[in-house]
C-alpha cells in the first residue's frame, strides 16, 4: 500500500518525537511491504518564524493532499507571556482544525500494567481504566463571536452549536460505543446552558437509532469528580469543545502515562494524529523526550486512517515490550535504573519489531 | 452577641444536616453566651411544591434581613430527568446568588490527617493540601444572554465579564492571599477566550497594589491536570464562574473528604454558608447523611460573618476529635467498625464541645 503522509513536526520536542515515529513507521512499512511518502510542512512557532503565520496555506495544501497527517506539538515560551500577541502558535492549531474540518478529537485514556504505579491515583482506583473521549473540536466558544464593548471594559465570548454539529459528533460517539461496551455518556451542563440543552435533546433523539447503546447524561462538574474517583466506570464520553479541553486533560494524568497517550482528530478531510502532550520547551534538543505517545499516535494512524490493524498491533506490542523491559526515557524510569535517550528508545523499537 | 440567621434547609438530606448544624451552633452559642435567632425559609424543590417558585420573595426578604444565611442543599430527582422543565430547583440557587449579590464563592479544600487514606490519590500526592478557590458566582456564561435561533436548530450562550466584576473578585483573591502564603493563581483560558484576556489583564494591573503577592497565570486545562498531580502546589486560586464550577468540584474529591467540605458565598449583602455536597436524595430521611460539612460551614459562618474565631475553632476542634475517635457516619467509617447516625454525630459533638 502507498501511504502519503503529511509530517508536521512543529515546535519544541516535536521534531525529536516525530523523528522516532517516522523511524518506527518506516520499519513497519518495510516489514509489511508498504511505501510511505512523508511530506514535511511547517506549523506553529517555527512557521511564524519562517513565514509569519502559524498555519501557512502551503501547509494546508499539503495536509489536504495527504492521506493522513502526523503532528508533533506546537508552542514556544516566547509567546506564552503575552496572550494578547497578535500572532500566536495556538492560532495555527485552531485554524488547522477549522480548515481541515477536524470536528472530532478522539482521546483515549488507558493504563499500561507496567506503569500503573506511576498514577497519582491509588492502584484500585485506576486499574482497568479504558475510556475514550470524543471532544467536539470546531465549534462552541472557541469559534463563536468574541470581542470587547464599552471601551474595552466589557468582554464577551459566544458559545454556539447547531443541531447538525452536535449530530455528527454524537453519531461518531454512538458508533464508537457500538464497537466497545455500548455505554455512552453525554457530558453537558444542561441545568444552566442552552447549548447543553440542545446537545442533550439531540442525543436523546438519536438514541432510538442505537437501541443497544445505554446512554447516560452527566453534568460536567460531576464528571470532573468521578474521573478522579472511579475513572474505570466510564467508557465512551462525548462532549463539547471547552468541556472536552478540560476533561480530556484531567483524564490524561490519571493514568500516570500522560507521556504515552495518543490522539486522533477526524472530520471532513484528512485525519490528524498527535500525542496529547505539549511542546515541552525546556527539553528541546536534549534528546530526552518520551517518543511513545507519538509512536502510539502513528499506530492509531495505521489502524484508523489506513485500516492496517496488524501493523498497529505490531507497534503497540513492541511498545509494551519496551515498557516491560524498562527501555524508557527518564520520565518513566524507576529511580536508580538506567534511562534511555529519545533516539535510543526509537532504535530499540525498530530493532525489536 | 445577638445572631440573626436565616435557615434554608432545602431538599433531600438538607433538613437533616441543617438540624445537626443548628444543634451544634446552639450549643456553642450557649457556651459563649450568644443568642441565635433562626428564621427558617423555603428554597428549592420544597419551595416549588409549596408556593410554585424555587426562591420565593419572602425567602429573599428573610435572607436580606438576616446577618447570615445557613443553607443545606437543593435538588430533587423529579426535576433531574427533564432539564428543560420550566421551573427547576437550580433556578432558585442562581436567583438567590444574583439577588443576594453573592459574587464570590469561597471553597477551601484541605485534608484531615485521620481521613487522608480515604483520598483516591496516593498519600504523598495529597498530604499537606490546603487550597482555596475563589469562584466568581454571579457573572459569566451562567447569566449571559442565551437562547435559540433558526427555528431552534441553533443554540447559544454568551459569556460576559466587565472589568469591575473581575476586579471585585480578584480583590478578594489578593486579600485572601495576603492572609495566607501570598501566592495567587489566576485560572483562565486566555489563549482562546476574550473574557479570559480581560481577566488576565485586570489581574496583571492590580498586581502592583499587592507587591508581596506572587501571581501565576495558568490555563484551566493545565489546572485540571495539576490538581490531580500536585494539589498541594496550590494555595489561593481565582477563576470565573464555569471554570470554578468544574474545578472546585474536581478539587473537592481529591481530599477524600468531600462530605466534610464547607463553603461560603459572599458579596454585596448577607453572606451564605453551605456544605458543598448536594441534596443526596437517595439518603433522604434515613438519618445517615454526614452532617460535618454543614457543621463546618456553620464554623465558617461564626468566624467570617460574626468575627467569632474562638467559637469557630471550638467547632473545628470537636469535629476533629469526632473523626479521631471514629464517631462518624457510614460514608467515613472504616470497614467493620461501628457507624453513627446523622443525629448521633450531632449529639456526640454537642456533648463533647
Ligand atoms: C492550545 C489550545 C488552544 C488547545 C485547546 O484549548 O484546544 C489545547 O489546550 C488542546 O487541548 O489542544
Ligand atoms: C446546580 C448548579 C446550577 C450549580 C452551579 O453550576 O453553580 C452547582 O453545580 C454548584 O456548583 O453550586
From TrEMBL, chains A, B:
Function of the protein: Catalyzes the oxidation of 3-carboxy-2-hydroxy-4-methylpentanoate (3-isopropylmalate) to 3-carboxy-4-methyl-2-oxopentanoate. The product decarboxylates to 4-methyl-2 oxopentanoate.
Origin species, per record, is Flavobacterium erciyesense
Domain (Isopropylmalate dehydrogenase-like) spans 4-349
Check the record and name the PANTHER family matching this protein.
3-ISOPROPYLMALATE DEHYDROGENASE
Q: Which UniProt keywords apply?
A: Amino-acid biosynthesis, Branched-chain amino acid biosynthesis, Cytoplasm, Leucine biosynthesis, Magnesium, Manganese, Metal-binding, NAD, Oxidoreductase
UniProt subunit comment: Homodimer.
Binding locations of substrate: 97, 107, 135, 221
Q: Which cofactor does it need?
A: Mn(2+); Mg(2+)
In terms of domain of life, where is this protein from?
A: Bacteria
Give the protein name, as stated in the record: 3-isopropylmalate dehydrogenase
Tell me the Gene3D superfamilies matching this sequence.
Answer: Isopropylmalate Dehydrogenase
Pfam families this protein is in?
A: Iso_dh
Comment on bound cofactor: Binds 1 Mg(2+) or Mn(2+) ion per subunit.
Amino acid at each position: 500500500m502507498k501511504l502519503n503522509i503529511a509530517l508536521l513536526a512543529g515546535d519544541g520536542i516535536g521534531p525529536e518525537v516525530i523523528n522516532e515515529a517516522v523511524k518506527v513507521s518506516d520499519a513497519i512499512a518495510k516489514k509489511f511491504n508498504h511505501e510511505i511518502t512523508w511530506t514535511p510542512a511547517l506549523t506553529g512557532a517555527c512557521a511564524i518564524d519562517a513565514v509569519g503565520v502559524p498555519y501557512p496555506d502551503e501547509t494546508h495544501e499539503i495536509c489536504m493532499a495527504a492521506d493522513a497527517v502526523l503532528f508533533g506539538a506546537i508552542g514556544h515560551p516566547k509567546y506564552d507571556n503575552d496572550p494578547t500577541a497578535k500572532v500566536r502558535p495556538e492560532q495555527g492549531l485552531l485554524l488547522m482544525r477549522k480548515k481541515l474540518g477536524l470536528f472530532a478529537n478522539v482521546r483515549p485514556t488507558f493504563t499500561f500494567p507496567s506503569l500503573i504505579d506511576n498514577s497519582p491515583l491509588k492502584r484500585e482506583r485506576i486499574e482497568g481504566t479504558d475510556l475514550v473521549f470524543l471532544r467536539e473540536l470546531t465549534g462552541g466558544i472557541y469559534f463563536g463571536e468574541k470581542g470587547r464593548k464599552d471601551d474595552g471594559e466589557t468582554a464577551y465570548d459566544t458559545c454556539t452549536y447547531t443541531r447538525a454539529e452536535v449530530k455528527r459528533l454524537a453519531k461518531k460517539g454512538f458508533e464508537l460505543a457500538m464497537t466497545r461496551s455500548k455505554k455512552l455518556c453525554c457530558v453537558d451542563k444542561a441545568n444552566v446552558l442552552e447549548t447543553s440543552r440542545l446537545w442533550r435533546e439531540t442525543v436523546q433523539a438519536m438514541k432510538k437509532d442505537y437501541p443497544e447503546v445505554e446512554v447516560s447524561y452527566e453534568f460536567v462538574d460531576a464528571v470532573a469528580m468521578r474521573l478522579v474517583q472511579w475513572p474505570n466506570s466510564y467508557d465512551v464520553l462525548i462532549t463539547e469543545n471547552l468541556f472536552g479541553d478540560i476533561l480530556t486533560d484531567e483524564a490524561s494524568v490519571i493514568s500516570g502515562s500522560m507521556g504515552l497517550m495518543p490522539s486522533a482528530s477526524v472530520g471532513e478531510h484528512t485525519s490528524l494524529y498527535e500525542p496529547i502532550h505539549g511542546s515541552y520547551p525546556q527539553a528541546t534538543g536534549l534528546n530526552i523526550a518520551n517518543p511513545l505517545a507519538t509512536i502510539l499516535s502513528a499506530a492509531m494512524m495505521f489502524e484508523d486512517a489506513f485500516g492496517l490493524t496488524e501493523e498497529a498491533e505490531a507497534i503497540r506490542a513492541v511498545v509494551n515490550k519496551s515498557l516491560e523491559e524498562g527501555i524508557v526515557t527518564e520520565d518513566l524510569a524507576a529511580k536508580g535504573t538506567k534511562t534511555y535517550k529519545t533516539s535510543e528508545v526509537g532504535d530499540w523499537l525498530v530493532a525489536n519489531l
